[in-house]
Write a sequence for this structure.
């Protein structure tokens, strides 16, 4: 970094914006919903997914090919972003992308727990986070959960996992381990962010995400009526809930819905909440939270042109695209009609 | 960066008293304008390189936008002719 400050954000933002322009739009989605899996793969081959489809085409086919190509492309794009960025920008982006590390750790632990084949676990990993290939290889080669914990010793997941391991040994369920991973991720997500304007916006976005995650979890718990302590699933850092209020609200669905309807997210989530009351379906609510986050990300991307926010906005849009294509492909495989699939997509 | 320019201005003002030589003042004007142009080009340049890395067709656009702040220096050059 030079004395006048780094011009690295400009570089990263320009590249990311160029990539954003090549994401699929309404038109492409409409075409995709009318195609079969093979045609979707073909369509992807001709767009920005060409390299991945070609690389994986000989080994996989059908919907699996689409799914693996999507995962690999996502990983490559995000790894690229981390590679280009430096210093503070790197730190801010890595915070968010560490969620893929958390996902990978959980996948590996589950794989070891169920004695899954190493190559089966490997295709499910999304190498978009901070872990490098060597660490992931060592993770995959670990043949016991103790081994996994040991490999992760030097990462942020090491100490919490070690603690949770004792509990796992007693009870033989994975929940404490998975909670430990999630908590390590969310603790890192919000601690020690800077205090300038774009960073504050970024923080607000992260908090909204935590809030929505808490709200979804609470709604699920309230609806299932299961006798689980809601406080155990509480994620720190949000603004909407505290540990106590979440535990109380998760016992009563009506109260919970009312609480969310009165919160600062009322505007974005209102219609979905009404639908939740009428149709008793959580899917609409989950889509509404996704759409609200995406819309928020879009807005963020234009307020502060040279900061972390356009990058995050792209990351969100890309994730969404991957999920949408996956939904289309899986929907086609299950024989859903084009209209039904379209209702599953989240497009802003 | 901006602090440095301020410090430079202060130093010029405090050591030399008032700047009475017109030629020196004109030279200073051109120099400072060039400094500003350089600062502007630094951000545009790295963004242009980023955009070009994604799409090579943007080379011409990137080049034009990168050198656009250079006009400030040309305008500052006018001062030299007016004064000199």
């Amino acid at each position: 970094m030079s004395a006048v400050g780094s011009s690295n954000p400009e570089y990263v933002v320009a590249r990311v914006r160029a990539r954003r322009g090549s994401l699929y739009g309404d038109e492409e989605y409409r075409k995709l919903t009318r195609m079969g899996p093979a045609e979707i793969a073909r369509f992807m081959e001709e767009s920005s997914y060409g390299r991945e489809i070609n690389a994986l085409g000989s080994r996989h086919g059908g919907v699996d090919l689409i799914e693996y190509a999507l995962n690999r492309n996502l990983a490559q794009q995000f790894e690229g972003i981390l590679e280009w960025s430096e210093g503070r920008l790197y730190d801010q982006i890595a915070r968010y992308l560490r969620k893929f590390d958390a996902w990978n750790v959980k996948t590996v632990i589950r794989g070891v727990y169920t004695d899954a084949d190493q190559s089966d676990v490997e295709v499910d990993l999304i190498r978009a986070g901070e872990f490098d290939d060597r660490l992931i290889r060592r993770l995959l080669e670990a043949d016991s959960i103790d081994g996994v914990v040991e490999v992760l010793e030097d990462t942020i997941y090491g100490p919490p996992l070690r603690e949770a391991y004792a509990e796992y040994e007693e009870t033989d369920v994975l929940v404490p381990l998975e909670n430990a991973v999630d908590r390590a991720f969310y603790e890192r997500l919000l601690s020690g962010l800077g205090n300038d304007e774009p960073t504050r916006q970024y923080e607000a976005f992260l908090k909204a995400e935590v809030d929505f995650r808490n709200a979804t979890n609470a709604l699920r718990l309230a609806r299932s009526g299961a006798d689980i302590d809601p406080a155990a699933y509480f994620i720190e850092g949000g603004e909407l809930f505290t540990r106590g209020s979440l535990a109380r609200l998760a016992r009563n669905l009506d109260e919970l819905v009312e609480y969310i309807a009165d919160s600062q997210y009322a505007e974005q989530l209102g219609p979905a909440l009404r639908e939740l009351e009428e149709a008793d379906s959580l899917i609409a609510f989950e889509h509404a939270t996704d759409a609200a986050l995406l819309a928020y990300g879009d807005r963020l991307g234009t307020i502060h042109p040279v900061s972390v926010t356009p990058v995050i906005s792209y990351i969100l849009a890309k994730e969404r695209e991957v999920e949408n294509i996956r939904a289309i492909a899986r929907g086609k495989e299950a024989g859903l009609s084009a209209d039904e699939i379209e209702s599953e997509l989240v497009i802003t | 960066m901006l602090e440095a320019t301020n410090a430079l201005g202060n130093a010029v003002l405090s050591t030399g008293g008032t700047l009475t030589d017109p030629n020196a003042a004109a030279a200073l004007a051109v120099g400072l304008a060039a400094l500003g142009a350089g600062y502007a080009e630094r951000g545009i340049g790295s963004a242009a390189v980023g955009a070009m890395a994604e799409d090579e067709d943007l080379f011409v656009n990137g080049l034009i936008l990168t050198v656009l702040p250079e006009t400030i220096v040309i305008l500052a050059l006018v001062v030299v002719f007016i004064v000199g």
Q: What stands out?
A: Chain A has a mean pLDDT of 79.
